[in-house]
Amino acid sequence: MRTHYETPTALRHDAQTLAADARALISATSDIADEKVASARRRFEAALSEGRDLLDRAQEQASNHIQATDQCVRRYPYESIGVAFGVGAILGYLLNRR
Known about the structure:
Distance between the termini: 28 Å
């Protein structure tokens, strides 16, 4: 099965839906007193929290990189255009030389 997301927004929406479903599952099993279920619920909550922390860190890093790129492009606009043109030309050449 191959999954393809059209936009990062779609991926983010699916991740939020999954997290909401996971929280609902945790809530629905809160009245079950079995130790195995309670242990699984605790591990699941920890994994969910860890995933959220990882997502927050990734978003913060992406934001920092975007800001740094923006500052660089604003400081050196003509050089940035030249680099983008050169990279595009090289990629175009490599992709078309079959």
